[in-house]
Design goal:
35% helix; alpha+beta
Amino acid sequence: MDEDKLTKMVEESGNALIQHVPHARAIGLKIVTAKKSHAWLEVPYAPHLVGNPDTGVIHGGVITTLLDNASGVAVQLALPERSAIATLDLRIDYMRPAEPGKTIKAHAHCYKVTQNVAFVRGTAYHDENEDEPIATSVGTFMLAANRATPVAMAAQMAKALEAKDNKKGDA
């Protein structure tokens, strides 16, 4: 997908890339900005997201959800067209607790896409300081997750059907 088409899609659809995920809606997740292979999301501080009432720190599961969704959006933005994806693996290293009362932001970068798998790195942080992470992540995502036929085989089948259709048209 070229940059102009990508920018237009993100501007027009806003949070459509995550609004179909009930948990993302429940925690108030929002796409802040995006570009090819990169996504910046945030979740505002809210009392119902607190994991430790004594400290007011947001639960680690919220950060996991934020990084997973940011990574998924980055994968979508790295693909030539929208496709169903699924998280295969997501490793998160927690560096420090989130600060009570502050919005948590995340940046994810899809740095490699193969025929069937995409690879992503992410960082959760406060303010604009990615260099002082709350948590970092690495993940892998399966592409074309809703297909019963593997992507490579589906592409070969599509070519074969197209060739067959073209042959019929010549007859």
